[in-house]
Specification:
By secondary structure, this protein is mainly α. Helix content is 44%, strand content 9%. The strands form two sheets. Strands 1-2-3 form a three-stranded parallel sheet, sandwiched between helices. The protein has a three-stranded mixed sheet with strand order 4-6-5. Strand 2, helix 4 and strand 3 form a beta-alpha-beta unit.
C-alpha cells in the first residue's frame, strides 16, 4: 500500500521487508543510554560557558517534533537554544497557538521569518510546473533560513529532529549517525533545484525575492563550524509516545479536525 512515489520512498528486500522496518528493528538493538551519553558529550562541546551566545539553534515549526526537540534540549540537558521558524504561509490557528506555546512554555528566544507572500505565490506556480511540487519553497526555507541565522549569530550547532529519510524509509542505518549536509538539502529536500533555478523561470523572480533561500557559502559555514545533528540518532524516537507526553505535560494541541490521508491528528 506504500507508493513508490512517496517523499521518503522505501525499498523492499528479498524477504519483502521494507528498509524503514529494517531500521526500526535496529532500534531494539541499540543501547540508547550509551547514545544519550554520546549526545551529552556533543552538547557540552558546544555549550556557551560564558553565556555570550546561544548554546545551539533548533529549527522549529511548532509541531509535535519541535516540542519534543525543545523539551529534550532545554529540560533534559539544560541548554539555552535559539528557536528559528520559516513561515511557509500555511498555519492554521491551532498551529500558531502551538508555535506560541513552544516559545512560552520552554522559555526560549524565537526568530520567526515570514517571506513575501507574492513571491511565494509565484514560487507555487513555478515549482508546480517545474517539478510537480508547489511546496518547494517550504522545503528550501526550512533547510536554508535556520542555517543563515546560525551563521549570522555564530551558533555552530543545529539540532534537528528525526532524519525522516532514515527513520521512515531506511535511507541510512542508525549506526551511520547521519548529519545534515548541503548535499542532502539540495539533492533530496529540494529535488535538485536551487534558488537560482527560480530566477531563470517564467515568474519574474529576482535574487532579492529569494535572499532567504540562498545557502551560506562553504567558507561561511567553515568559519562558524556549522554542524547539524539529528536527535533521532541519540534518543529512541517514537512519535506517538512523545506526542502523548507533549500534550499531557507541555500544552501541545492536536488538530481539532482529522487530516486527510491519515488516522492521526498530531
Amino acid at each position: 500500500m506504500y507508493p513508490s512515489s512517496a517523499a521518503a520512498a522505501a525499498i523492499y528486500d528479498d524477504e519483502g521487508v521494507c528498509t524503514g522496518c529494517r531500521v526500526n528493528d535496529q532500534k531494539l538493538r541499540i543501547d540508547w543510554t550509551e547514545r544519550r551519553d554520546e549526545l551529552r558529550e556533543i552538547l557540552e562541546q558546544y555549550r556557551s560557558n560564558d553565556g555570550s551566545s546561544y548554546d545551539c539553534l533548533i529549527p522549529v515549526s511548532g509541531g509535535k517534533d519541535s516540542h519534543y526537540q525543545t523539551y529534550v534540549i532545554t529540560q533534559e540537558f539544560g541548554l539555552r537554544p535559539l528557536l528559528v521558524t520559516y513561515h511557509g504561509n500555511n498555519y492554521l490557528p491551532v498551529g500558531l497557538r502551538n508555535l506560541r506555546n513552544l516559545r512560552e512554555r520552554f522559555g526560549c528566544d524565537h526568530v520567526f521569518f515570514s517571506p513575501n507572500v507574492e513571491a511565494l505565490k509565484k514560487l507555487n506556480r513555478l515549482c508546480f510546473r517545474m517539478m510537480g511540487d508547489m511546496n518547494w519553497h517550504a522545503h528550501c526555507g526550512i533547510f536554508t533560513y535556520p542555517i543563515q541565522i546560525a551563521v549570522q549569530h555564530r551558533i555552530p550547532l543545529l539540532i534537528w529532529g528525526e532524519h525522516g529519510f532514515t527513520d521512515l524509509a531506511g535511507m541510512y542505518s542508525l549506526n551511520d549517525r547521519i548529519e545534515m549536509t548541503a548535499k542532502f538539502r539540495l539533492e533530496h529536500v529540494q529535488r535538485g533545484y536551487d534558488w537560482h533555478d527560480m530566477i531563470e523561470g517564467t515568474e519574474g523572480l529576482t535574487p532579492q525575492d529569494l535572499l532567504w533561500a540562498q545557502y551560506p557559502s562553504d567558507d561561511q559555514l567553515a568559519e562558524v563550524g556549522v554542524r547539524g545533528i539529528y536527535l533521532g540518532n541519540y534518543v529512541n524516537w517514537e512519535a506517538n509516545t512523545q506526542t502523548e507526553m507533549m500534550v499531557k505535560e507541555w500544552g501541545f494541541e492536536e488538530s481539532p479536525e482529522p487530516f486527510e490521508r491519515t488516522y492521526r491528528r498530531m
